[in-house]
Specification:
The chain has about 230 residues and is an alpha/beta fold. It is about 50% helix and about 10% strand. Helix 4 crosses helix 6. The longest helix is centred in the last third of the chain and has 15 residues.
Length: about 230
């Protein structure tokens, strides 16, 4: 079913000028509407609590961003927006890409060589339940998730292969389905789906659904079968 209401966006950039330009450019894209803007993280959080946007776009250079702090990942996870959010990068930084997705980002967008129409597409795809990352970012994530560093293969043995049923669960997670929807699709109970996910997480060495979807997306993008 097509979306009839515009996607409501909270946009946060590192300066008033860049935030204004970003908001104006997004408002010109079909089906998008910027309902809040901010130039620091505290203001962004207050705006989101007030207007409750559908999605947030957050610059990596935003003042007060938890991704730039020295706090642990648990603190970062507690500080991220309650809605789906996308990290905006001027240049791809592997550490920030990995940190953003581990903190719950649904997309990472590098705007150095991209135009506003591609960012609009990124927003729409995230709102459809998909994950947005380019090939380089996905490789960084796969390296982080599989224990590779600096392009060197981990000395650990390859992860066990998934069963056909587990592969079905993974593919439905990649489509953005929640446990209830996956259970209905596979004619199983939600409890059974939770058990499948726990086993899949353990097999692949991932800790949440975002990491799982990214891991699977990289495998499929590189024409490899799921493990």
């Amino acid at each position: 079913m097509s979306r009839t209401k515009p996607i409501r966006i909270a946009a946060a950039d590192s300066s008033q000028m860049s935030c204004r330009l970003l908001s104006e450019a997004l408002n010109k894209q079909p089906g998008l509407s910027v309902v809040a803007s901010a130039v620091d993280y505290d203001s962004l959080w207050r705006s989101m609590e007030k207007v409750k946007p559908d999605v947030a776009l957050i610059s990596a250079g935003l003042q007060g961003s938890p991704l730039r702090s020295e706090r642990g990942s648990a603190d970062v996870s507690r500080s991220v927006p309650p809605c789906p959010w996308i990290l905006l990068l001027d240049e791809s930084e592997p550490q920030l890409v990995v940190a953003a997705f581990r903190a719950g980002a649904r997309g990472v967008f590098s705007r150095a060589h991209s135009d506003i129409s591609l960012l609009a597409k990124c927003v729409r795809k995230v709102m459809e339940g998909q994950i947005w990352a380019d090939n380089r970012q996905m490789i960084c994530l796969l390296d982080a998730l599989t224990g590779k560093e600096n392009g060197k293969q981990s000395s650990q043995s390859p992860p066990p292969r998934l069963t056909p049923r587990e592969e079905s669960v993974v593919r439905l997670v990649m489509q953005g389905m929640v446990n209830r929807e996956i259970a209905n699709e596979l004619h199983l109970s939600e409890h059974t789906i939770k058990n499948y996910l726990f086993r899949i997480f353990d097999k692949l060495g991932v800790s949440n659904r975002v990491e799982l979807a990214l891991y699977a997306a990289v495998k499929l993008n590189s024409s490899e079968s799921l493990p």
